[in-house]
Structure formats: C-alpha cells, structure tokens
Amino acid sequence: MADINIGFHYHTPATIKNGKIYMPGYLGCFIDSLAQHCESVTCFLHSPTYQEDCLLDYKIQSTQVRLVDLGMHTSVPKRLLHSRQITKIFKQNIQNLDLLLLRAPTLLLPFIVNATGDLPIALLLVGDNLSGVDDMKQPLWRKELIRLLWRWNKSQQTRIAKSSLTFVNSHKLYEEMNNSIPHLVETRTTTLSKDDFFKREDTCESPPYHLLYTGRIERAKGLLLLVETLALLVQEGNDLILDLVGWTVPGDPILDELSALASQKGIQNHVIFHGFKPLGAELFKMYRSADIYVIPSLAEGFPRTIWEAMANSLPVVATRVGSIPYFIEGAAELVTPNSIKDLVSSIKKMLYSPDLRKNYIQKGFILAKENTLEVRSVKMMTTMREWIVDKK
User: Fold this and answer.
1) Sheet holding 20-23, edge to edge
2) To 10 degrees, what angle do helices 354-369 and 340-352 make?
3) I need a surface site. Which of 56, 177, 294, 386 has the fewest CB within 10 A?
4) In this structure, are 9 and 42 located in the same domain?
C-alpha cells in the first residue's frame, strides 16, 4: 500500500497555537516520524490543563498531521465518566482511517476499541502501570482502588492484544506475552533523530563533576535514593553536583522531599533543579555539559532518556529493571535497584576508571545510532502496512 491513513491515541494532551499543533516532545517527534511514511496521521488527544500547557514543547512539522480534541485532560475518574462522549468523537472521525494505533497502558483503551468497529487496531505497549502503584504517595485504601482499576485495565488490554497487532518496548512484557499474543512485535521507542548526536571521547575532565538525571521527577525514579547516594559520595570528598531536569507530577510533593533531604544531609548546594527543558537544544545542552547520566529507577519499561544520554556521549549508570539490562547490557554500568551501596560503587567506578568510562561512551554512542526515529519508524510502519493488508 503506497498511502495509508492512521489514527493515534494516548492520554497525553496537545493543543493548537497560531495554526500549529503542539504536544510533548517525546510524542511529537514520534508522530512526525510516522507522518513521513503515510498519507496522514490523525491524533486523538486531550486539550491541556493550565499546568500542562508549558510541557507542550514540540511543534509538529508535518502538514499531514491532524489533531482531534477529546476534551480537557481531566482526572482519570472524570475521563472514565465521560467515556461515552469521548468515544462518540472517535466514531465521528475514523471513517477514512486504515488503522488506529493506541499507545498503552491507557484507561480508555477498551472503550475506544469497542467504538471503532472493524477498524484494524495496533497497540504500542510502553510499560505496566501496576508496577508503580506501591511507589505512589497515596493512602493505602486509594492505592488498592488504583491497583484494582489497573488490573481491570490490564485484563482488557490483554483481551484486545489477542486480536490486534501489538508492539512492546519492554522485553519483560514481550516475554510475558509471547506465548499468548499471536501478533507480538518487540520495538524500541526513541526521541532521537540522526542529527541529534554529539561525539566526544571522554567526560569527567575537571571537577566539580556533574551527575545528571532527566525525566519525570517522581519517587519511582529512585531520586530520593540518588540524593542519599550523593550525600555519601560528597562526605567521602568527591566534588559532585547533581543536576535534575524534568517535570513534576501534580499532587506529588517529591520535589519538596528531595530539597528537604538534601538540606538534612547538608548537600543543598550540591543539588540543582533546573526545571523542565524542551526536547532539542536546551535539553541536549544539559547532556553535553554533564559528566555521568544516572537513572536509579525502581521500575521501568525502557526510558528514552538513556538513548538521549548515549547519543550525547554520556556514560550511563542505570538500575537493572524493565528492559534496561536487555537493551544496554555491556554499554552501561548496571546496578541493583534500591541499593545505595551499588550506586556509590558504580558512580565512583565511572569517575575514576577512565578506560572503562571511555568504553561505555563509545559503546553507548554506537548503540544509540541503531535506535533513531528514522530506523524505528520505518520498521513500525512496514509492520503496520502488512497488518492492514492481512486484515482486508
């Protein structure tokens, strides 16, 4: 098929400003990469709340992308209550589509699929929300309600996946689903274009040495553990700064907790929160001025930020969770999750073993080259075209 029209949905907001579509960078560059290989992409997305508007940092470049507004990106209960109105919008806008691509987990998934009739469905599974419930800053009763809701959603997701084309960016999920989902494809999500790479041979050339974390500022990323680790390293006499770049989740006081912990440990001048940086030059500048990238997550699928760090010639220290060891084993320093001892040891190894550090930089750079949008979008579109043909 020379030209196809695909729809896309995820619970991320988007908006139109001065006639241009804006959405979060990680999603926008993915949509643009798909649009290069099809007739059109219709994005079914919510409009942002006031707090979310500043996170819509990416302007869609392709003229083949259309935005359909699903209404305000309100709380999960409110979106579930308004599922009938949302699915009505889908029904009104899918007539000319050849396939609907749904990024998941997302709670409206079963309602949307039920509303699309015989339209071929592809899923892009990027994690398992059940794994993060225990790390939520919520009362126990509320955690259990959330857990029940995500269990229900996961059962519906599995039901839908059995009759859909299903991409997964988590090797753990792939192994879990491989025997029960007939059309399962392992993929790797990324934000990198071939023009985003920055080559250097080494980091850690002069103190203070900068440790960098980028992404969501939340407790599941192990950031409290990272501040504890930094305190031990500074007490040992290591000249270090921790740079935190990202955005907080509304209602989560993690940033205040990080600040309080740093003050308690006497390292408040060693922890700097830079706020949200849009994808592109501002964000890449942070990578290029850092010495080591550290992501001590307690649970993950696979964080795209690791590819960003490797593409900018940063050595990586990461935890052995999700698909991280499967995708980057041998190209980064991997540690046991929730282990301050391992983090301290691995960061010191990165700081004071230049040959090892240079080896990781080189291997990571090569690995990131294999995971650009140009490479991954072609593979995904080819697979979706074949699926559409099979469903006719």
Assistant:
1) 15-17, 20-23, 58-59
2) 100
3) 386
4) yes
Decide if 199 is inside a domain: no
Per-residue H/E/C for the chain: CCCCEEEEEEEEECEEECCEEEECHHHHHHHHHHHCCCCEEEEEEEECCCCCHHHCCEECCCCCEEEEEEEECCCHHHHHHCHHHHHHHHHHHCCCCCEEEEEECCCCHHHHHHHCCCCCEEEEECCCHHHHHHHCCCCHHHHHHHHHHHHHHHHHHHHHHCCCEEEECCHHHHHHHCCCCCCEEECCCCCCCCCCCCCCCCCCCCCCEEEEEEEEECHHHCHHHHHHHHHHHHHCCCCEEEEEEEEECCCCCHHHHHHHHHHHCCCHHHEEEEECCCCCHHHHHHHHCCCEEEECCCCCCCCHHHHHHHHCCCCEEEECCCCHHHHHCCCCEEECCCCHHHHHHHHHHHHHCHHHHHHHHHHHHHHHHCCCHHHHHHHHHHHHHHHHHHHC
Ranges in the chain, pLDDT < 50: 1
**What residues pair up with 246 in beta bridges, in sequence order?**
215
What's 124's domain CATH number?
A: 3.40.50.2000
Within this chain, do residues 301 and 387 fall inside the same structural domain, yes or no? no
Number of domains in the chain: 2
pTM for the whole thing? 0.89
Of 25, 11, 9, whose CA–CA distance to 73 is shortest? 11
- The range of the structural domain enclosing residue 309 comes to 209-369
Q: How far apart are CA 350 and CA 316, in angstroms?
A: 9
CA angle 26, 27, 33 (to 5 degrees): 100
Domain co-membership, 355 together with 381: no
Query: Token pair 């700081």 is at which residue?
Result: 351
Note the pLDDT of residue 315: 98
- Identify whether residues 258 and 337 lie together within a single domain: yes
pLDDT per residue as tens digits for the range 196-232? 999 999 999 999 999 999 999 998 899 999 999 999 9
